[in-house]
Amino acid sequence: MTARVVFKKASRWYGPVMALNDVSFELGPGVYGLLGPNGAGKSSLLKLASGQLRPSQGTVELLGRPAFGSPDVFHSVGLCSDTDALFEDFTGLQFVSALLSLNGFDEVQARKLATEAIETVDLKDAMHRKVGGYSKGMRQRIKLAQSLAHRPEVLFLDEPLTGMDPQNRKRISDLMKRLGDDGRTVLVSTHILHELEQVTRRVLLIHNGRVLAEGDLGEIRDLLDRHPRSVRIKAADTRGLARELVSLPDLVSLNLEDATGHLLAEIRKPDAFFSKVQELSAACGVEEMWVTDENLESVFSYLVSK
Amino acid sequence: MSSSQIYEQHYRRLDASIPLRAQRWIPIAREGLKALVGFRAFLGLIAIGWLPVFGRLVQVYFTTRFPEARRVVPVDDKLFFDFMAMQLPWMLLMSAYAGAGLIANDMRTGGLLLYLSRPLTLVDYILGKFSILFASLSMVTLIPGVVLFLGARSLAPDVLGDAAHLLLLPKIIGFSLVMILPTIGLVLVMSALARNPRFAGLGFFFVFVGTTVAQGIAWQATRSPYAGLASIQACMRRVGEWIFQVKPTRMTAALPAEWALLVLVLLALGCFYVLKTRVRAVEVVK
Lengths: 306, 286
Fold this sequence. Notes:
The complex is a heterodimer of chains A (306) and B (286).
Chain A: E1 5-14, E2 17-27, E3 30-35, H1 42-49, E4 57-62, E5 65-66, E6 77-80, H2 92-102, H3 107-120, H4 136-148, E7 154-158, H5 166-181, E8 185-190, H6 193-197, E9 202-207, E10 210-216, H7 217-226, E11 229-235, H8 238-245, E12 251-256, E13 263-267, H9 270-284, E14 286-291, H10 296-305
Parallel strand pairs in A: 3-8, 3-9, 6-7, 7-8
Antiparallel strand pairs in A: 1-2, 1-4, 4-5, 9-10, 11-13, 11-14, 12-13
Helix pairs in contact in A: 2-3, 2-4, 3-4, 8-9
Chain B: H1 5-8, H2 26-37, H3 40-65, H4 77-86, H5 88-109, H6 112-116, H7 122-138, H8 142-155, H9 157-160, H10 168-194, H11 197-222, H12 232-244, H13 257-278
């Protein structure tokens, strides 16, 4: 594997605050997920990787060059940042073409590449409209188009699916997979686990500025399955439902909350549990069910404590 | 799917050591100017800035028809100096209008990242923004000055047609640069520091007016010939008087031209240094 993004004991401080601590990893071709709760250091890691920040300690290499202070590598790097900054008075086509001209493409080439990229993110119908009038999802897609248009070898995507409808999420997820299959290195940052599962199995888990785990998503899923999850159920016949559920092998605890009448369950294998509740929903009048700790904060707390 | 060329072309290894091309700032300047030209107010400011050119040309034409009028309104270096000095207020208005948001908007919204994630250096970015302002301010100083010279020369060849008067051209260019360069530096610095175009514009005017007020106070307090060094406008005017070799005004008469020039050069360099250190794509919150 040819490593294109290499972190070697890289750390970054903002004054007394440590954003990234002694991080080492290598990324070759393919799609990688950068997963972590808010404030974990994902954006700092992406900014270091994309050369926008200088590491306080250690080294960060991009395509064999120091990421910071090597503007020439950006011929082969695309960045879709989390900031919502676009040239509001430009049309989508003008916006992408203008940024391509910064890469050295002439007007004709820039227009051609921009049109292709805009088609790729399914914005062709809106490419002659001003960017200022785009919806959140369209803005996200035009940002993605500008990061892809010059056919970069390495792509950094910071929360690329934010604000998109399910259809476009699927389209963009498929696109990211294809880019990875095509031999490009794609690092996708997100804090939503299931978004990532549709794109890649390879993840970097980051928490408190440290890379907590690096590897296959399945292994993390296994860890999660062993992590008891809390589920709250509102039903017409909570006692009847409790009688049926209590026999499930992966149930850790079951409580009936007097004040609300809700059933509180702690479970290990959510999929099996949810299927069982689904079966019983008509008979027991299940009205609502929600997982109370289905967020990465709790997952990370669990992983950190292991 | 027809719209899939980017990923259907399959992986083509690109050489990461593609060298940076020259004149990387040109697309920034071009797109910035295109955007400015789209605003009527910008075109209006340019149009108003050109009115004095026609006024001066009428004046020159009048003196050709009535040569005795040359005793009252002579066609000489002072005519061109006065014209250039009168363009200063338009230039300041143009600077605030065209320049206040140039960096402020990019830094406020994070748009700077769009530029710096391309094969560009920070100096390219600054140079691109500088060029937008240089072109804009030239439209109300340098270019009208040159047009006035060429027009006046063709209207009054007996006065301006000789080789000696050709020196007026470098004088016009020199004085234009003396006015334009420090002004661009200052407005870009204000734009980078304020991050809000309105505040940047107000700050820019405040500095220009404030330094003139400071000059008045310093003069009252010290009666020193160096008091004029506190005012950017006075320094520009004094250098202009020296370039065109015209009689200084009362406020600038005692001000050494070389000191005034030094102040303007230091101001321009200081502005560039501040821009280099302040403009960052990533805000580091401590």
